[in-house]
Amino acid sequence: MSKVIRRNIPSMRLGIKPPELDEVLHDMGTVLQSGQLTLGSQGKSFEEEFASYVGVPFACALNSGTSALEIALRAFGVTGKQVLVPTNTFFATVAAVIHAGGIPKLVDSDPYTLNMDYKSLVKRWSPECTGVIVVHIGGAVVPCIEDVQKFCREKGMFLLEDAAHAHGSSLKGKSAGSLGDAATFSFYPTKVMTSGEGGMLVTHDENIYREAVIYRDQGKESFVSNFHIRLGYNWRMSEIHAVLGRSQLKRLPANIVRRREIAQWYGSILKDIPELIPQRLTPDSLSNYYKYPVLLPKEFPRDEFKQRIKSEWGVSLSGEVYVLPCHKQPIFKDYADSSFPGADLGCAQHVCLPLYPDLTKEEVEYVGEALKAVVNSLKKEKSH
């Protein structure tokens, strides 16, 4: 076999390229000339287009996915009540419950899907619980979502989707964001689509939508009013951000097709590396592959694995989802009232392979060579 030429594979490639760049700059110029830089036609069009894409009637554009979470929870009225949240999630999901006046009750995750464990959800429920937040980790819709929907109906709880990872993902043909009473999306720069900074709250419920519109603009009853009827905040999305978001949304379907193609390449490669277990998806799940997590054997320390593949092969792995479950975060120590073995294992032992639309097949094959080499090297060392 010929010698493999060393490459440098970054964890992510960001940037807006022509012709999208030209389109965005033109439309931003139009906004700047108009003089209306917030709550204008660009934001309204972005809301309508995104709602249509998800398959819901209402969408409210915001300055971040974190804001969307807090606003949704305020609209649900969680003050003084418990909200069931997976411990394997980003800080913002749990923090939003606290900021909205609620009490997070953490739920374990399945180490192979990285998503909420339904048995743990049922076990952690109490009559004090008012709702459930599910988080579609890595772009894969929570496999047990239908069970969660039924459980929420039976117990009279709301269901909120944190779909920050899941733009364009689906399960059984139903889109992420259309599966609960409301859902929130993030448009942070690393997501499958971005508005620079920004987020979106989507819902089937007009009352939740109207509450969101009030909360995002300092709690005013309307944009032109000075009557403040909610304890809101400045959670608006600017017109400049909406321009970028609209442009990215147009390109999202093609980008997801490409991400799924790259994921198929990885899937073929990993069939020959049984030590690495990809995130488990159900046959009827269509992930957008925001992330491509793989579970390492327990005897392979993650930090060593990442260091070796970087130093020996020049491959930078993507960020984990997540390094630490929330019950191990110091700020949430008061909510770590149980054991969460699934999340402990999944969080500690997974890595995420580089995956972005302009990753080439040759680069993916090179990552595969690097994975095989590092796995074989570690196996030999651990066997001695």
Description of the structure:
This protein is an alpha/beta fold. It has two domains: 20-248, 3-Layer(aba) Sandwich (Aspartate Aminotransferase, domain 2), CATH 3.40.640.10; 251-383, Aspartate Aminotransferase, domain 1, CATH 3.90.1150. The chain has eleven helices and 13 strands. The chain has helices spanning 20-34, 41-54, 65-76, 91-99, 118-124, 145-155, 206-216, 239-270, 302-313, 341-349, 361-383; strands spanning 58-62, 82-86, 103-107, 129-135, 158-162, 170-171, 174-175, 182-186, 199-203, 277-278, 285-286, 293-295, 350-352. Strands 1-9-8-5-4-2-3 form a seven-stranded mixed β-sheet, with helices on both faces. Strands 7-6-11 form a three-stranded antiparallel β-sheet, with no helix packed on it. Strands 10-12-13 form a three-stranded antiparallel β-sheet. The longest helix is centred in the middle third of the chain and has 32 residues, at 239-270. It is globular.
Notable characteristics:
globular, 384 residues, alpha/beta, 13% strand, Aspartate Aminotransferase, domain 1, single chain, Aspartate Aminotransferase, domain 2, three-stranded antiparallel beta sheet, seven-stranded mixed beta sheet
The helix-strand sequence is: HHEHEHEHEHEEEEEHHEEEHHEH
Q: Calculate the mean pLDDT score and round it.
A: 97
What about the largest sheet?
A: 7 strands, mixed
Q: Find the CATH topology of the largest domain.
A: Aspartate Aminotransferase, domain 2
The computed structural class is alpha/beta
Task: Give the tally of structural domains.
Answer: 2
CATH class of the largest domain: Alpha Beta
Q: Low-confidence spans: pLDDT under 50, at least 5 residues? A: none
CATH homologous superfamily of the largest domain, by name?
Type I PLP-dependent aspartate aminotransferase-like (Major domain)
